[in-house]
Amino acid sequence: MKKLIQLFLILFLGLIIFYTYKEYFFTKRIISNENLEINMNTDNKNIVQSPEKLNNTIKKLKYEVKLSNNNQYSILADASEIKYENNVEFVYMKKVFAIFIDEKNKILEIEADNAFFNNQDYNTVFEKNIKIKYLDSIILANKVDLIFTKNKLIITDNIFYQNKFAKGFADIIKIDLLNKNFEILMHDSKDNIRITLN
Q1: Distance of alpha carbon 74 from alpha carbon 79, whole angstroms
Q2: Residue 63's beta-bridge partner residues?
Q3: Of the CATH numbers 3.40.50.800, 2.60.450.10, 1.10.287.990, 2.10.10.90, which one belongs to the domain with range 33-197?
Q4: What parts of the chain have a pLDDT lower than 70?
Q5: CA-to-CA distance for 186 and 190, rounded, in angstroms?
Q6: Phi, psi of 15 (to 5 degrees)
């Protein structure tokens, strides 16, 4: 009888450990204070607020996400503040560096003064002094929307584009992250996109 009770208690303890692991550790949430790193899987809505003043600042916050089609996305900020709205985690970031790697291992890098990251769907809005590097091209702008829910990268506000063949100015650049097609547009259809060949 005593061995039966011990066996029952061991099984009960095993179930508690399994449930605790599944509930609290299965989401791959890794937190360390020095180089705070969080790896999570989730989805969201868009809320845009300015990260002008950050209370409860977290230094060196990094998110790494594995997306569909073997795409990867990681974003690192010197200073961040995490806020929750409707059980969704939003992160306001300063001095941001992000990397998007597609299924063919082509790398798109984004640097910006500020970013707003939605940890549910990973959509990110970058603002101020943005520098984008992709293959042999560099794009400078003041706002970039990286919209994973639509597989789009939308670049706006004071766009300057340069590669080894040309440089130019435009108001909007839209890039499809799946097929790499892009559109270069002006706000007013009467205005021309300015391109100079090198």
Answers
A1: 15
A2: 38, 75
A3: 2.60.450.10
A4: 15, 18-56
A5: 8
A6: -65, -40
